[in-house]
Amino acid sequence: MTRRSLTGWGRTSPTRAEVVAATDSVVVVNALNGAGRRGILPRGLGRAYGDAAQNAGGTVLSVTSLGGSITIDHQGVATVSAATTIDDLIRAALPQGWFVPVTPGTRQVTIGGAVAADIHGKNHHVDGSLMSHVRRLTLITPTGTRRLMPSDPLFWATAGGMGLTGVVVSAEVVLTPVTTSRMAVDTDRTADLEETLAVMSDGDDRFRYSVCWIDCLSRGRRLGRSIVTRGDHAEVGALPAGAVRDPLAFTPRRPLPAPPWAPSGLLNVATITAFNEAWYRRAPRHERGAIQSIGQFFHPLDGIEGWNRAYGRRGFLQWQILIPFGSEPTLRRIIERLASARCPSFVGVLKRFGPGNDGHLSFPGPGWTLALDMPVGPAALGPLLDELDEAVVSAGGRIYLAKDSRLRPELIEAMYPRLPEWRQVRSAADPHGVMNSDLARRLGLLEAHGSTRSGHQGRPARAGA
Amino acid sequence: MKDALGRPQSVLVIGATSDIARSVLSKLAGAVTSRMVLAARDQDRLAQVEADLRQQGVADVRTISFDAIDIASHAGLVADAFSRGDIDVVLVAFGVLGDQLSDERDPVAAASVMQVNATAAVSVGVACAEALAGQGHGTLVALSSVAGERARRSNFIYGASKAGMDAFYQGLAASLADRGVDVVVVRPGFVHTRMTVGLKPPPLSTDADSVAEAVVAAMAGGSATVWVPKPLRLVMAVLRHLPTPVFRRLPL
Q: What is the pLDDT of residues B86-120, one digit of tens each?
């Protein structure tokens, strides 16, 4: 057990906690029973951008050493321990002709964290988010170990529940059959936002995977210019001659390390505008059926280890929103506002979601999602995003909690209308408020806004605690 | 919790009726701070500050009576302030200027400047440090003064008291560095406020609003020492190293 300062991937708002390595379920149970008044929280690889995996003054249970077991049956159901990463699972499953049902933009997340955020990927419009492919969960709650199925409300409270229902120790995930480890990818470069939205709305349904990289710094006629990349798992026949012999080979390159230090102002409007321009020019106007590796298509940033350090000491944040279909004018206004505000933002991600699932706090729902990485520093950034949050709420949209590091608590119930229901299910499993996090404290997730009792005082002091 | 941009949700301000504190509170009320605990001695003025902040839309404002001289009450006051949830930022803003020329002939009056500015600042600092370290996060901002940098003929009693509190908070910063708490010492030059009405301002004087801006920026963390205005850092570095005979001849 060590005291450590922890941050999320954005490297903002460090807080201190006792970090306990969860080596097995017994350690988890003991840690939950012995948690002090500041509570306890599981943490995986710390890829949530904000304060979701921090618990100031309390205990953080590091689950990365919680086994690493993967068994895959002949029907493609993988039983994995919570510390298994998407990378581990892809490496184990691909040679047997299976792929993960959902992968985010990095392979370096644990299954436990993936469940807690109910992660989505480029196939959401077809396949939904991760928890739509999970058949069973083993969850250690403060009131005991539960084996959960989708018929259980606690299963769905855990889906996107940000680790606040307990500690996931294993999950059964239904994999997707594939015949190769390559992707066949179509690329279309669009000139402006209208074309971007039209290309995606009209053509997405023909592809299993679809994503759009959008330039949120270009203005005027170029507002919303993008690169739309869509594809599916390649068939053996589409592979180049050299790859046919071993169609399921998966040999991602070892990541290059990012420099250990960078000045805070390195990524500014000038450098990022130049990058966005170069990146847009580099893409082909229209390309069909290009063969790409899984890493190239799904996880481009995994090529550089610790790329988050490039933002310097002050760190950065990611703002990811959902805007329901039908509110495209709001989406347009938001992109216009972002472009005119001149707060630097790297090429963003725009994607169409399909229907959501039963997760009370699951992020995806029918609509557009936009995600932007922005360096902390410009004084205008806080007020700008506060203002845009209001527009998101007015459109019936929401912010992704796994990315959030700055939302104001007043808006959370409007964004997640099932929050009261989630609180009920959650507190049945954790009546004394043992599970807690900085995110939960900041947003008042555990109890209604304005309540005088604060989260960490929910439990009577115990002898020896 | 502070957000990624370093903006606090909750603050405790001790000495909340000072001009600088009021300006800080007003800026925070315009941002995202929704819970404020205000401590001060003058309850009428404090009620006015509270009313102003409510007017600005801060939902949760609470006032506590604070007497710097009553050292024994400080621990309880701080515990009370932290009793309804985390405090993201504590601002120690109380202090008295004294009257140099008459205090020089009045041992009790001279010592009471020390009691308020130094002794009470230490007792409040110790109490807040424990509370902040216990919650594993937070920032403690202490309002010091350039007067503590080198004792001057014109205000050395005040200067001595600020030198004491300044040194204490620098040391506290070191002791809390690995406990999740940041301590920031803010050293303004001459500030035009109620406290300095009638005094002749030296060059590089500033106002409460500028100091408040620096204090709010300091809450985001980063610097352990903040000078207002910034060039004072260089000026004081020079003054500090002047030979005494030269320094004494300066009209300071």
A: 999 999 999 999 999 999 999 999 999 999 999 99
> What whole-number percentage of chain A has pLDDT above 70?
96
Domain boundaries, chain B: 10-249
Tokens encoding A280? 């847009």
Mean pLDDT, range A389-398, rounded to an integer:
98
- How far CA A43 is from CA of A17, A62, A221, B135, in Å, comes to 12, 5, 44, 19
Q: What is the mean pLDDT of residues A378-401?
A: 96
For residue B143, how many other CB atoms are within 10 A of its CB?
29
Name the A residues in 394-413 with CB < 8 Å from any B CB: 405-406, 408-410
Query: Residue A211 pairs with which residues in a beta bridge?
Result: A229
Q: What are the φ/ψ torsions at residue A236 (nearest 5 degrees)?
A: -55, -40
- Site of tokens 């419009």: A125
Give the residue carrying structure tokens 């039963």.
A358
Across the interface, whether the CB atoms of A16 and B9 are under 8 A apart is answered no
Contacts of A386 in chain B (CB under 8 A): 32
From B158, B168, B169, B190, active-site residue: B158
Q: Where are the domains of chain A?
A: 2-64+416-453, 70-177, 182-414
In terms of phi and psi (left: phi > 0; alpha: psi -120 to 50; beta: otherwise), the region of A206 is alpha
Q: What is the pLDDT of residue A272?
A: 87
Query: Nearest by CB to B179, which of A16, A55, A450?
Result: A16
User: Would the CB atoms of A13 and B32 count as touching at under 8 Å?
Assistant: no
A182-414 is classed in which CATH architecture?
2-Layer Sandwich (3.30)
Contact assignment for A454 to B3 by CB distance below 8 Å:
no
CA distance A350 to A347: 10
Whether chain B has a CB inside 8 Å of the CB on A221: the answer is: no
CA separation for the pair B52, B61 (Å, rounded): 10
Judged by average pLDDT, the poorest of A249-253, A420-424, B82-86 is: A249-253
Give the right CATH number for B10-249 from 1.10.3720.10, 3.40.50.2000, 3.30.200.40, 3.40.50.720.
Answer: 3.40.50.720
Residue bearing tokens 């990463």: A85
Cβ–Cβ of B1/A405 closer than 8 Å? no
- What secondary structure letter does DSSP report for B2? -
Quickly tell me which residue has 């500690």 as its tokens. A167
Fold for the domain defined by A70-177: 3.30.465
pLDDT in tens, A344-388: 887 799 999 999 999 999 999 999 999 999 999 888 999 999 999
